[in-house]
Amino acid sequence: MMNIDRINARIVQELKLDGRVSNTELANRVGLSPSACLRRMQELERSGIITGYRAVLNQTALGIGCIAYIAVGLSDHSKNSQKAFEQAITSSPEVRECHNITGSYEYLLRIETSDLVSYKTFHTDVLGTLPQVNSITTYVVMGSPKDERS
């Protein structure tokens, strides 16, 4: 496991804010030479702390007008039932995140669709047809005052 010292923590924080920052600018921000900064970034990547870089997308421009979180309860709590549910749900493009959780439900899904009508179709034609699903509770996102994924 790699040591996350104060400088590595600053590198990670700066990259979270701007993953496209140049190595020279990043080095300036964290107080390193460009070569030392590059070595540290490469080591953070090799160690698996940095697993990738991504683009932040404008959801509205992409036609995503409805985001919902869905708490899913399964009728059977066996490993086979969970595996079957996970396999079925991962093939659905509307499912952007799937988390196995503790509490009253087994899964929390993050769904993105173009509108509420499309969400209803997903709810009925995908979730509603899975034999493992016992309960569905939907939380429609009305706004996101803080979302560190974007």
Would you give an account of this structure?
By secondary structure, this protein is α+β, with helices and mostly antiparallel strands. The protein folds into two domains: 6-46, Arc Repressor Mutant, subunit A (Orthogonal Bundle), CATH 1.10.10.10; 66-140, Lrp/AsnC effector binding domain/regulation of amino acid metabolism (RAM) domain (Alpha-Beta Plaits), CATH 3.30.70. It is 37% helix and 20% strand. The chain has five helices and four strands; from the N terminus they run αααβαββαβ. The protein has helices spanning 6-17, 23-30, 34-46, 79-90, 116-125; strands spanning 66-74, 95-100, 107-113, 133-140. Strands 2-3-1-4 form a four-stranded antiparallel sheet. A hairpin with a 6-residue loop joins β2 (95-100) and β3. The radius of gyration is 20 Å and the shape is elongated. It starts with 5 loop residues before the first helix and ends in a 10-residue tail after the last strand.
